[in-house]
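Sample entry follows:

_____
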Amino acid sequence: MKTVFYYNFPLCNLGIAEDDGAICGVFFNNEKVTTNFEKNAEQKSTNHKVETPLIKKAAAQLAEYFAGRRKIFDLPLAPHGTDFQRLVWKALQNIPYGETRSYGQIAAMTGKPGASRAVGMANNRNPIAIIVPCHRVIGSDGSLTGYAGGLDLKRKLLELERENS
């Protein structure tokens, strides 16, 4: 059964979801658009008020991240998506803390150098925000591009990481 618990962090409110012993979702609680996780949760049994030990651990690690004390997350992850999406999300996890990569660079990391648009779509559907650092992906010209939590939050996350690198 999927379980979700909501937290108020310094920069944003997040829902953290667990399914079968792995984190399957970290999403912005103030999103106006329903996330992929929430769409799937509507179709399956979900308990929205259970703070499991794993969800507590994820929340503690996110709190350390927001405090500038955590650069690498150590959690079992199980993002639900296509094979290509999971490949992209794995590549995102290889972007070092405090650094950014372009969509084209991520496409090259996946072995599909011409797939930058597909990388953008996979990045957009990342179900585990912050822990799978889609906020570290920027335009090829260095510009900030879309982010589920908003560009202001993306900017703040990147500044947080630069300050603590």
Remarks:
- The chain has a mean pLDDT of 89.
